[in-house]
Amino acid sequence: MSSVFPDDSVGLVSPQVMTFSEPLALACGRDLNGYQLVYETYGELNAARSNAVLICHALSGHHHAAGYHSDSERKPGWWDSCIGPGKAIDTRKFFVVSLNNLGGCNGSTGPGSINPASGRPYGADFPVVTVEDWVNSQARLADALGIAQWAAVVGGSLGGMQAMQWAISYPQRIRHCLAIASAPKLSAQNIAFNEVSRQAILSDPQFHGGHFQEQGVIPKRGLMLARMVGHITYLSDDAMGEKFGRELKTDKLNYDFHSVEFQVESYLRYQGEEFSGRFDANTYLLMTKALDYFDPAAAHGGDLARTLAKVEADFCVMSFTTDWRFSPARSREIVEALIAAKKNVSYLEIDAPQGHDAFLMPIPRYLQAFDGYMNRILV
After folding, report:
1. What is the largest distance, in Å, between two alpha-carbon atoms of the chain?
2. Does position 65 have pLDDT exceeding 90, yes or no?
3. Are residues 357 and 235 in contact, defined by beta-carbon separation less than 8 angstroms?
């Protein structure tokens, strides 16, 4: 490993591409005729092929979960605090697979990809995908990698929903499910936030009905607003207050509607600006809809315990006290349903002031619990 990287880093990593020619039947009733998934791997698959761990990403995540793509990259993968030698997901023990989901904008087939039927970017013509669709595509990736069973499927937020769906859809192919800062379905409030974000994008004049790529533009303002709304929900009130308070960016008030006067305003605008330059608007619409549609208990009249009756995996569920987007109460719903279904489940509610984004942060108590559970699962 190059000395420029920390000792507990996986170091330099390269994305890989897996191409699938067999059509994938989607929940929306359409088929995706051929697609590719971009993924990264860390660690080595053992001879028994029993040490594989799948990482599922959240709304704006991607395949680059750990390590660096170049010697000059300043920021490592999005979950580098948890993946690497000696970390919770220890790459000396586990073979870790992290992918960019279908519909994404980081290399996997999505709205920005060329539609073979038209020769133009899919844009708004890309089919709506669900968490179940993602899990089915991930199962094909596992097949291609020769992984018959995951030691664990792990994810936070929307990633936790995918981990749960794995345990439901493929009960014999997953030994442990780790659902962190997640929920069994979205609340009406969460769906409402997603709808506001979508409307910000859909009403942007540069959206062009989802075919903005052909026009050579992006709906930047809509994406900025969507990210600003989303980002507010990822942080707790305490975290916002501690980070920004009512601090002014300028020396005095300007008494107008256009100046950036408060530090929190500056922060949100920066986040929106940065996001609009790297994320696809159609992908944002798809990801939020996948969140809205996730409701595995609906197959059994809303009875989550019945839905979980056939799972074989042991569960680890973790939540954070100040997460109001996916509150601890929502994690406890999962735990109570698992207990009712007589399944093995460990639950930890972590006292953390950071809000929903806490699952991405190196909080000592969280990492200790995460590491403790992962140390139990190798056979």
Report:
1. 68
2. yes
3. yes
Residue 253 has pLDDT above 90, yes or no: no
- Is 357 marked as binding a ligand? yes
Active site residues: 157, 323, 356
Domains recognised in the chain with CATH numbers: 16-185+295-376 (3.40.50.1820), 190-288 (1.10.1740.110)
Instruction: Give the pLDDT band of residue 236 (cuts 50, 70, 90).
Output: confident
Bridge-partner residues for 52, per DSSP?
95
Within the chain, strands assigned E span: 16-20, 24-25, 31-32, 35-42, 52-56, 95-99, 114-115, 120-121, 152-156, 176-180, 314-320, 345-350
**Which residue type sits at 45?**
L
For residue 377, the SS3 value is coil
- What's the pLDDT band for 23 if we cut at 50, 70, 90? very high
Residue of 164, 152, 111, 138 whose CA lies nearest to 326: 164
Which has the closest alpha carbon to 53: 357, 308, 373? 373
Q: For the chain, give the number of residues.
A: 379
Closest CA to 287 of 131, 144, 173, 150: 131
Q: What's the CA gap between 323 and 154, in Å, rounded?
A: 19
Tens of pLDDT, residues 322-359: 999 999 999 999 999 999 999 999 999 999 999 999 99
Each residue of 92-116: pLDDT tens digit?
Answer: 999 999 999 999 999 999 999 999 9
The response to whether 227 counts as a known ligand-binding position is yes
CB 30 within 8 A of CB 127: yes
Buried b (16+ CB within 10 A) or exposed e, 222-231: bbbbbbbbbe
Token readout for 169 is 């859809």
